[in-house]
Design brief:
By secondary structure, this protein is mainly alpha-helical. It has 10 helices and no strands. Its main location: membrane.
């Protein structure tokens, strides 16, 4: 017998017909993703907040991005998990709109942060002498403000004003059912949402990282050509340059992970309305989770590439952060 989400309501959505073993394994898998996302990003937040040596402009951007990823894991993923497994929404229609808006906002905020981080890295690697004057705390705070406010205005405006449904009212009325929570985009809103949330900031990042890569290669060649006599004088510059280049490389990998995780979802969001919504909802749902994985991977990339993050992690795990003056610990050589 078909199970409904709301047994007593006419026009109820149909519950998923998966067996209990599939349901349980899906819950276990998704809970693992949620825990990894929350714990990993919380570690980044604690590390950068606690250790004074990590209080740099770039790290404040990374701290803000980790907060976005943490909130996605803590607030959004648990409700999405129930919806994905049960195919039902048990939290009411208003909360459905709030959840959808916040989901779009945080996913968009994540890529806005990455775009600004790439701009920060560009000045650090390509114009190191003027970096501190160009990228100061005020500039970083403006970047963080834009990264939160533009996605918030865009996401909440679109969902609460039903702008995503303009031109797709018929299809929405056809598939709308009680006890469901899904977002439908019209042809126009699907393209606009994908361009604002993904394609514009994505192209900005790709363009900037291409420039960083070519300039870093050129600088590396010129450093190799330095004669032995100048070696001692150049050593300090060489070490700081290597660190900046490694940071750019790490953030390049983070950007690559982001593009791999989110591009399938945004591609189908833009094209699905033009294909008469032929893509099965279960595939769209799977791609949303593939996108969520990006928030899980970011701290893992830090742990893999940053010595300071591994040292901070060790101190947090062993409770050393509660010791007096632990915030002054040097996690890397200046």
């Amino acid at each position: 017998r078909m199970q409904l989400c709301c047994e007593s309501v006419n026009g109820s959505c149909i519950r998923s017909s998966w067996s209990n073993s599939i349901r349980v394994s899906m819950y276990i898998f998704m809970i693992c993703i949620i825990l990894a996302t929350v714990v990993g990003n919380l570690t980044v937040i604690i590390s950068i907040s606690h250790f004074k040596q990590l209080h740099t402009p770039t790290n404040f951007l990374i701290l803000s991005m980790a907060t976005v990823d943490f909130l996605l894991g803590f607030l959004i993923m648990p409700c999405s998990m129930v919806r994905s497994v049960e195919h039902c929404w048990y939290f009411g229609e208003l909360f459905c709109k709030i959840h959808t808006s916040t989901d779009i906002m945080l996913s968009t905020a994540s890529i806005f942060h990455l775009s600004f981080i790439s701009i920060d890295r560009y000045y650090a690697v390509c114009d190191p002498l003027r970096y501190k004057s160009k990228i100061n705390t005020f500039v970083i705070l403006v970047m963080i403000f834009i990264s939160w406010m533009v996605p918030a205005a865009f996401a909440f405006g679109m969902i609460f004003l039903d702008l995503n449904l303009r031109g797709a009212e018929d299809i929405y009325n056809h598939i709308h059912c009680a006890g469901g929570c899904f977002v439908i985009f019209s042809e126009t809103s699907g393209v606009v949402a994908s361009i604002v949330s993904f394609y514009i900031p994505g192209f900005v990042m790709l363009y900037i990282y291409r420039k960083i890569y070519s300039i870093a290669k050129r600088q590396a060649r010129s450093i190799d050509a330095i004669s032995q006599k100048k070696m001692r004088f150049e050593m300090k510059h060489h070490i700081s340059f290597c660190r900046e280049r490694k940071a750019a490389k790490t953030l390049g990998i983070i950007m690559g992970v982001f593009l791999i995780c989110w591009s399938p979802f945004f591609f189908f969001t833009a094209t699905n309305p033009f294909m008469n919504y032929a893509i099965p909802p279960i595939l769209i749902d799977a791609l949303v989770w593939f996108g969520y994985l990006n928030s899980t991977f970011n701290p893992i990339v830090y742990a893999f590439f940053y010595m300071w993050f591994r040292r901070a992690l060790k101190m947090i795990l062993f409770g050393k952060v509660f010791q007096q003056d632990s915030s002054r610990t040097h996690l890397f050589l200046e």
